[in-house]
Amino acid sequence: MLKLDKKSVLLLLLLCAVMGGIAYGLYASGLFDLFINRRHFLEFIRDHEAYAVVIFIGLQTVQVVAAPVPGEVSGFVGGIVFGPLWGVVYSTIGLTAGSWVAFMLARILGRPLVERLVKAETIERYDYVMKHKGLLLAFLMFLIPGFPKDFLCYLLGLGHMRQRDFLLVSASGRLLGTILLTMGGAYFRDARYGALFTIVGLSLVIILIVMIYHDRIEHAFRRMAGALRKDTQKKNKPSK
What we know:
The chain is built from twelve helices and no strands. By secondary structure, it is an all-alpha fold. The chain starts with 5 loop residues before the first helix and ends with a helix.
């Protein structure tokens, strides 16, 4: 049976209250449809300009915690509404907040919660990620398109990574994808279709490379994880 200390219980209640409030607001107003419909999302943001920033950051936060929800729509619309600079800033704030909530939920509630949210084969496939504190490995997995970043937040919460390190890695690792989506939205808004197609083309090339060499990349990550574990064991091994 899972045992929680007082601090963990209070933090869990706070997280649940925040996410519960956001989820209820989205459900009551029918906003879940916005995650999958770019036109509805854009119309809603424009109809609520006074609260657009808060709504956008909240949606970005929720789409990470509700891991099956796609974030491409919200990231693209962020560029349309807020432009390249503030679109990246607001997206990063929301994505980082959502990543932290997912990480802490996994850290507090443990594997039983993660097994409800993440498929067993995904947990098994990326089990090596949870067994070390490799910041470079985690950063690369957030950086490279094609890896389950939202699920990764939960998996890293089951490991030994410090909260501060996780926030640094997740925020910086997501930045490339955030910039590409936001710039795409901004170019679409400004009818700069040449630049838009360049961004889309670059993104597709990266994703295609990852799809083709996915097994090799994952194998390299596993080797890196093994090397990091061996290095840690050598450092922790008492000298004679």
